[in-house]
């Protein structure tokens, strides 16, 4: 066996195999180019039909693929919008909570700084848009010791209004900004000089401001920027409760009195918590 494939015989055998493969390849190649006309016709028809079928099939597949992509995009967009809405709602809730906490801290600070006063804390539970500048409803009533005509303060001790009616568990507060009320607040402009007295009520022209009327034109000490406080001349409001600050003066046209526009110290558009002040006879609020 070893003698059969040794030396030149092995090389001759390999050379013969190589020649055989070359001849077979050339033969097959020539046959491919010498296909009969039926074979060529079948190939042409098959190519044309394949192209006709492939083009619309590809377009349909592409159409449905794009629809699927649009559906996926819409779903992702809806999910993102839901996340944004949820985040916005959480942010609003957080802002409201922070605002309430700030007001409650101010109330605690005011109560701690004025232990000599009886203050009943309450939450605003009702306020109608139709009577926004006129009244609010609070969460304490007769059971908590609240009575008619008691002063109502904001979290910093600024005057908000007075109690006009009470039930066992709630009360209605007439706001200082109410122009419908005929009652005013006896007030004093303080600046370290001669006292300047007048009556403060709601301003029908500018609802967010107050109007101090019946100021004697002989009073020349008051200036823009002076503070306005309760005078204590009535039995309803103790002396010294902060009302606001003088913004401007104007003549009444009578030649006897003048009036002043007062910027309230309390923010009447953001009243969430209040104090009901239970006054004592002759009590003065510093």
Automatic annotation (TrEMBL):
Signal peptide per UniProt: none
Function field: Involved in formation and maintenance of cell shape.
Domain Rod shape-determining protein MreC beta-barrel core span(s) in chain numbering: 124-277
Organism: Ferroacidibacillus organovorans
Presence of the UniProt keyword Transmembrane helix in the record: no
This protein's record includes keyword Cell division: no
Family: Belongs to the MreC family.
Record keywords: Cell shape
One GO location term (cellular component): plasma membrane
InterPro entries found in the cross-reference section: Cell/Rod_1 (IPR042177), Cell/Rod_MreC_2 (IPR042175), MreC (IPR007221), MreC_beta-barrel_core (IPR055342)
One GO process term, biological-process aspect: regulation of cell shape
Protein name: Cell shape-determining protein MreC
